[in-house]
């Protein structure tokens, strides 16, 4: 019988499923990405499972555990309880994966938590045991790792930093609350910051293709545009406020900033650092704030790491 010394890490997105065959040391051996539709019917789920199986090739007997990063809240009972951005029958998919990977543990994990674990294992946070990962995209996601373990919480909502309050009675958020960090530090938030500053400074806004189109604003800020610079400064201000609050709650060793907007980390990172130090007690002031380093591989790597640790604890 083949030695079971490989992992499969899967990253489920709204339109794409990525899968990677990964060694126990976190080395990616092979990977694949397939486009998918609505993942509800047994037929579609079986098709997705088959395309994931293909990544293991002839080594399928060597796969010990399978990790699955999903965009939603995963309860401690491995149920998908809140997934506004995807149509996925998680239990159905886990059943299909159990058929193609017989004898393997199938371990689901929230995608931001998976990215946190990926960065902890092989990325910017490697070597750290306590890490907070923040993903800045159309929303603000977060994964908190303490002593090497993801903080899931009593309801699976541990690390929902995007919905922490930064402005009393502020902008309305999709979650139902007002003034959430997500409404100021996501790409949608940046666009809103920018439009406000354009209006108050009497500046004609640059052309944006959609309500979360951050790139032209970063470009304008690089060119010295006053409204764009102020919008980026707002992002940094509110993000730093949230980070300093987290620092004085759990005192992580490192903050890692990922997601689509982390490409502009050089632009906002120094401002975040400046405010963060200002709002933190001396014990927390030297905590590193780093850009993520794994890019699109973080989810699959982190899912595999989740599978590795869960599998060992089985
Ligand atoms: Zn919210």
Helix-strand blueprint:
Layout: E1 6-12, E2 16-23, E3 28-35, H1 42-53, E4 63-70, E5 73-74, E6 80-82, H2 90-100, E7 105-110, H3 111-122, E8 131-136, E9 140-146, E10 149-150, H4 182-185, H5 187-201, H6 215-222, H7 226-250, E11 254-258, H8 265-278, E12 288-291, H9 298-313
Parallel strand pairs: 1-4, 4-7, 8-11, 11-12
Antiparallel strand pairs: 1-2, 2-3, 5-6, 8-9, 9-10
Helix pairs in contact: 1-2, 3-9, 5-7, 6-7, 7-8
Bound molecules: zinc ion (ZN).
Polypeptide structure, described:
The protein has 314 residues and is α/β, with parallel strands linked by helices. The chain folds into 2 domains: 6-116, Nucleotidyltransferase, domain 5; 126-293, Nucleotidyltransferase, domain 5. Helix content is 37%, strand content 21%. It has helices at 42-53, 90-100, 111-122, 182-185, 187-201, 215-222, 226-250, 265-278, 298-313, and strands at 6-12, 16-23, 28-35, 63-70, 73-74, 80-82, 105-110, 131-136, 140-146, 149-150, 254-258, 288-291. The strands form 3 sheets. A 5-stranded mixed β-sheet has the order 3-2-1-4-7. Strands 10-9-8-11-12 form a 5-stranded mixed β-sheet, with helices on both faces. Helix 5 (187-201) crosses helix 7. The protein is globular, with a radius of gyration of 20 Å. It binds zinc ion (ZN). Zinc ion binds next to loops.
């Amino acid at each position: 019988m083949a030695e079971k010394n490989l992992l499969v890490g899967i990253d489920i997105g709204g339109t794409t499923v990525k899968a990677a065959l990964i060694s126990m040391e976190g080395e990616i051996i092979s990977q694949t990405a397939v486009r998918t539709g609505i993942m509800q019917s047994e037929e579609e789920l079986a098709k997705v499972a088959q395309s994931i199986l293909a990544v293991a090739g002839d080594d399928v007997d060597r796969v010990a555990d399978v990790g699955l990063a999903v965009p939603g809240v995963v309860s401690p009972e491995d149920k998908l309880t809140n997934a506004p951005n995807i149509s996925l029958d998680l239990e159905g998919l886990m059943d299909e994966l159990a058929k193609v990977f017989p004898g393997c543990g199938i371990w689901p994990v929230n995608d931001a938590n998976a990215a946190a674990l990926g960065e902890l294992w092989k990325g910017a946070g490697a070597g750290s045991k306590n890490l907070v990962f923040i993903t800045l995209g159309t929303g603000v996601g977060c994964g908190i790792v303490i002593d090497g373990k993801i903080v899931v919480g009593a309801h699976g909502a541990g690390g929902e930093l995007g919905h922490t309050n930064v402005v009393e009675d502020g902008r309305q958020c999709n979650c139902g609350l007002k003034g959430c960090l997500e409404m100021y530090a996501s790409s949608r938030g940046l666009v809103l910051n920018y439009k406000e500053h354009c209006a108050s400074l009497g500046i004609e806004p640059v052309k944006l293709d959609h309500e979360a189109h951050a790139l032209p604003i970063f470009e304008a800020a690089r060119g010295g545009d006053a409204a764009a610079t102020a919008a980026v400064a707002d992002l940094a201000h509110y993000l730093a406020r949230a980070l300093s609050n987290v620092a004085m709650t759990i005192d992580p060793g490192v903050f890692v900033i990922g997601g689509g907007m982390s490409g502009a980390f050089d632009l906002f990172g120094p401002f975040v650092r400046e405010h963060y130090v200002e709002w933190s007690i001396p014990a927390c002031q030297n905590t590193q704030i780093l850009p993520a380093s794994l890019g699109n591989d973080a989810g699959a790597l982190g899912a595999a790491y989740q599978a590795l640790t869960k599998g060992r604890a089985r």
